[in-house]
Amino acid sequence: MKLGMQIDYAGGFKASAAKVSAYEKAGLDIAWVAEAYGFDGPSFMGYLAASTETITIGAGILPIYTRTPTLMAMTAAGIDALSDGRFILGLGASGPQVIEGFHGVKYDAPLGRTREMIDICRAVWRRERVTYDGRYYQLPLPADQGTGLGKPLKIIAKPVRDTIPIWVASLGPKNVAMTAEKADGWLPIFFVPERAREVWGADLDKGAAKRDVALGPLEIAAGGVVAIGDDAGPIAEMTRPMVALYVGGMGARGRNFYNDLMCRYGYEAEAAEIQDLYLDGKKDEAAARVPAEFLDRTNLCGPEGFVKERLAAFAEAGVTVLNIIPVGENPLAIIEQVKEWTS
After folding, report:
1. Any alpha helices (H) in 152-282, and if so which ranges?
2. Are strands 219-228 and 166-168 parallel, antiparallel or unpaired?
3. 2-231+303-342 CATH
4. What is the per-residue pLDDT for 254?
5. Half-sphere exposure of 76 (CA within 13 A, CB side)
6. Which of 16, 32, 92, 176 could form a disulfide with 58 if both were Cys (CB 3.0 to 4.6 A apart)?
7. CB-CB contact of 162 with 138 (8 Å)
8. Do the strands 132-133 and 138-139 form a parallel or antiparallel pair, or are they unpaired?
9. 68-94 per-position pLDDT tens digit
10. In the structure, how many helices (H) and strands (E) does the chain have?
11. Which of 106, 124, 116 is nearest to 66 (CA)?
């Protein structure tokens, strides 16, 4: 397995980039950069491209509603050029709170829009004159919807690669099936290796049956906090507030993808209780209701033997990129150790 890590740049681009350079030397393979409603992701990814040499820079993720498909393709091609072909375009839908609240864009048809965006991006990178008659995107814009002066264009610059990898963050059955059909990689969250096949297997198989063999096997990135030591087990507890935020607060009752996922894992009662408490403002109580078993299985915290067992479980479940959050006095040493075990 390769190693990936979500990079926090809240403290500033320069400080975070310096850390990534150190992570690169320690053996980290992929640096994932998120975009929510702080600074934009591509600015930092461009900075990373200039300050690193070998590490892959991944958008983890760019929300599909924040850019037109052709701008998404241009952005990806630009970062890929700056990094000499070290870029992964990660796409995701985000959620209605951010998309409608911060961007003022209607949150609709995430699956269909992602599918069409993938098609258009790949056409742009092949330097085709882009014409597309989709349900959600039409290129050029039909004459009856604009001036009628639009014409098919191709990107002026020549992309470094005509097949930049596209990874999709997806959870729901139809979206996961679409990911398995169309994407190069999959970015699930709260991945429990022992239950992954039961929860997602049928969806992955459905998409794989339609997959173009030229894409190769679907890659999967998943993981969690890594802490190694006889007293490291309780460190998994630090993820309680984050799990409660997603399961309880990311969305409304009846429309929370993360809550639905926890239900699919078999924690229906806990998921309902966490959401009720969180939406009532009782965040600490909601966090306390997150099952300890769930925390143990979605992280890699404990003695050396236990961590190795978790690594094997993730590998057995098909994970090709282990996303880690190293916690300890020496995070670089943790990266080096896990790199040795997974090589």
Report:
1. 173-182, 193-208, 240-244, 257-264, 268-279
2. unpaired
3. 3.20.20.30
4. 85
5. 35
6. 32
7. no
8. antiparallel
9. 999 999 999 999 999 999 999 999 999
10. 14, 12
11. 106
